[in-house]
Amino acid sequence: WTITDEQREYYVNQFRTMQTDVRGVICGGIAKEFFEKSRLPVQELSRIWQLSDVNRDGALSLEEFCTAMHLVVLRRNDIDLPDTLPPSLMPYLPLTNPGQYHPPPPLRGHSRSLQMSLLPLICHLVEQ
Fold first, then answer.
1. The whole model's pTM is what?
2. What CA–CA distance (Å, rounded) separates 10 from 35?
3. What CA–CA distances, in Å, run from 5 to 64, 66, 108?
4. In order of start, what are the domains of the chain with their CATH numbers?
5. Interhelix angle for 5-18 vs 28-36, to 10°?
6. Less crowded by CB within 10 Å, the N or C end of the chain?
7. Distance between CA atoms of 106 and 24, rounded to whole angstroms?
8. CA–CA separation, 71 and 116 (whole Å)
9. Distance, CA of 45 to CA of 124 (rounded, Å)
């Protein structure tokens, strides 16, 4: 389940084709279009999304994107998807409660809650 340095470099380069700011996110519609190129069944892509979008914001950070990419690559190599995300693929370090996560730091002085509240609007505008 571990992502090698070579794989991570490839995944980061793929992320940058859609989002030049590695601290930014890729909106759901853009990510969907990208991952559909894998030709995996929609049901499997949906499961990969559920596993990868750890903070359930409808977008993928770089860390979440790397997780999703790795699961796509594993699936394309006939490796079954896990029921739960293995610790080696967790985009954020777990706290004492396994259901919690460390979100990325806020961007450009704005609070994370403000960014997350604006994210659906921004993604909608970008996808139009």
1. 0.72
2. 15
3. 16, 11, 28
4. 5-127 (1.10.238.10)
5. 120
6. C
7. 10
8. 25
9. 21
Residue in this structure with the two tokens 């999304």, named with its chain if needed = 49
The count of other CB atoms within 10 Å of the CB of residue 112 is: 13
Q: Which two tokens stand for residue 115?
A: 């960014």
Asked if 127 and 29 count as a contact pair (C-beta separation under 8 A), the reply is: yes
Which DSSP symbol is given to 78? T
Q: What angle separates helix 42-52 from helix 28-36, to the nearest 10 degrees? A: 130
Reported for 37-40, long-range contacts at CB under 8 A and 24+ positions apart, including other chains, are 38/72, 38/75, 38/76, 40/72, 40/75, 40/76
Task: List the structure tokens of 109.
Answer: 């002085």
Residues 3-57 have pLDDT tens digits of 999 999 999 999 999 988 888 899 999 999 999 999 999 999 999 999 999 999 9
Tell me how long the chain is.
Answer: 128
Contact between 70 and 3 (Cβ < 8 Å): yes
Q: How many CB atoms lie within 10 A of CB 92?
A: 15
Q: Which residue has the tokens 């997780």?
A: 67
